[in-house]
């Protein structure tokens, strides 16, 4: 499919821009942000994201959930982008935590701790509240997301990051799936790299309450005709700034109530 959409002064070719991102991921090479030579609206950035996901589906992957990005001040400050965004995770991104990540598959991976929701009911905005999210959640668990922006030095605008499916690459889940506590805001998280504590946070770091972040995605995706489906996982966004994943590293997150989750790199 090829579509040209007028955006500001630029005719934007959604398909060509999506192909740049797919090619970068396939070749494990970083590229200049799309905003370097194209003026993109947020809506067109989401259209590029859909096209990237369509390519993954054509290659046999399927969407298994959603993800929030830039939902904490720690992430927004680190990435110099002030708004949250949403994206989707596919079957190819769920990584078995017992298998080391093969770094040759990635460009410049970083890891961030996240609270992950497992949905039992559909969430379709508008009007979804944090309470609706908790009612629609069967369990929550600990997660580590391995992000890998296709852009040089992880430098991007909101539109760039949206188009790049929010830097998604891989994620791992902990083993403990618990009933969602009524209040996730006080859930504590300690992030360690090779046994050394590097950051701490509470659930409130993410939009005041990670359930609020999931509600935001249901409402924002709802405006574009999307919804969060029963059975999906939803990564509610990095609680802390992400840390680089290097050869030999073991990165762990310990959460109150959710247990711990680790990822190793070879
Ligand atoms: C964008 C993706 C952000 C999160 O949890 O905030 C994200 C990035 O930081 O590269 O996944
Ligand atoms: Mg993330």
Walkthrough of the structure:
With 266 residues, this protein is α+β, with helices and mostly antiparallel strands. Helix content is 24%, strand content 29%. The chain has six helices and 13 strands. The chain has helices at residues 14-27, 42-58, 73-79, 130-135, 158-163, 210-223, and strands spanning 4-7, 10-13, 63-69, 85-90, 110-119, 137-147, 168-173, 188-193, 196-202, 233-235, 243-244, 250-255, 259-264. The strands form three sheets. Strands 3, 4, 5, 6, 7, 10 and 11 form a seven-stranded mixed β-sheet that branches. A four-stranded antiparallel β-sheet has the order 9-8-12-13, with no helix packed on it. Strands 1-2 form a two-stranded antiparallel sheet. The radius of gyration is 17 Å and the shape is globular. It starts with a strand and ends with a strand. The relative contact order is 0.21. The model has no long low-confidence stretch (mean pLDDT 96). It binds 2-oxoadipic acid and magnesium ion (MG). 2-oxoadipic acid binds at residues 69-70, 75, 79, 112, 145, 147, 149, 154, 161, 166-167, 237-238. One of its GO terms (molecular function) is hydrolase activity. It comes from Streptomyces spinosisporus.
């Amino acid at each position: 499919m090829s579509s040209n959409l007028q955006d500001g002064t630029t005719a934007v070719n959604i398909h060509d821009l999506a192909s740049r991102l797919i090619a970068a991921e396939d070749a494990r090479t970083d590229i200049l942000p799309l905003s370097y030579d194209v003026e993109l609206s947020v809506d067109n950035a989401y259209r590029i994201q859909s096209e990237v996901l369509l390519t993954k589906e054509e290659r046999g992957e399927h969407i298994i959930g959603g993800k929030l990005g830039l939902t904490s001040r720690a992430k927004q400050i680190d990435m110099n982008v002030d708004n949250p965004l949403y994206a989707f995770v596919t079957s190819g991104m769920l990584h078995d935590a017992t298998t080391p990540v093969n770094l040759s598959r990635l460009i410049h991976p970083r890891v961030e701790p996240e609270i992950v929701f497992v949905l039992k009911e559909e969430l379709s905005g508008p009007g979804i509240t944090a309470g609706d999210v908790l009612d629609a959640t069967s369990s929550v668990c600990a997660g580590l997301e391995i992000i890998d922006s296709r852009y040089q030095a992880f430098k991007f605008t909101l539109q760039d990051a949206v188009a790049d499916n929010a830097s998604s690459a891989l994620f791992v889940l902990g083993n403990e799936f618990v009933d969602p506590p009524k209040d996730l805001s006080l859930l504590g998280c300690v992030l360690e790299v090779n046994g050394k504590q590097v950051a701490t946070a509470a659930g409130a770091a993410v939009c005041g309450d990670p359930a609020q972040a999931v509600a935001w995605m249901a409402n924002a995706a709802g405006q574009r005709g999307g919804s969060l489906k029963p059975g999906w996982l939803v990564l509610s966004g990095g609680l802390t700034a992400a840390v680089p994943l290097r050869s030999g590293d073991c990165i762990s997150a310990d959460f109150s109530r959710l247990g711990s989750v680790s990822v190793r790199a070879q």
